[in-house]
1-acyl-sn-glycerol-3-phosphate acyltransferase
Amino acid sequence: MYRFGYYIVSFILLLLGGKMKKENKEKIPAAPFVVVCTHRSWLDIIFLALALWPYEIHYMAKQELFSKKWVKWLLTKLHAFPVNRENPGPSSLKIPMKILKEGEIVGIFPSGTRSSEHVSLKRGAVTIALKANVPLVPAVYKGPKTFKEVLKRKPKLVRFGSPILLHDSKKTTKEDIEKTLVLLQETFDQLEKK
């Protein structure tokens, strides 16, 4: 289903909106890893998935999106899995850890919500990457934020940064995680400016 969705969506977006530019794709390591991206529009999700192809992303998504049966079926087929953002329980770590152990890629938007403003990054992505001992791959999407803007054929770009390597240990503290979040935000800022 994911493969089918990729070919259909990429063809439609290419036809209606033109080509998308991908930068620094050579920096992407071998799976498994956690890809983290800025989140300003629902289009971030689609263009990040298209930019990472042939890798398939397992997106962490808010559980409210899974309330309708047909939406739940579709999201599950597209490798999304639910998480309770208000009260994250053990499954918010268990599911992505299992996916990473299987050699796959987990996609997380660490701002936790769509915003055009600077939003404090949440610790989930860093914690998961640390526990799974996999790199964090930062990415930014610059381009249309609405389908209307896609139709205007505005330039689209996904830019990847160098992987941030993390090593979990019993000595890892909340301060270490906070420092990594600061580094991640700085990386996002640099990738946005280029």
User: Anything to note?
Assistant: Residues 2-193 form a domain with the Glycerol-3-phosphate (1)-acyltransferase fold (CATH 3.40.1130.10). The CA atoms of residues 55 and 173 lie 32 Å apart.
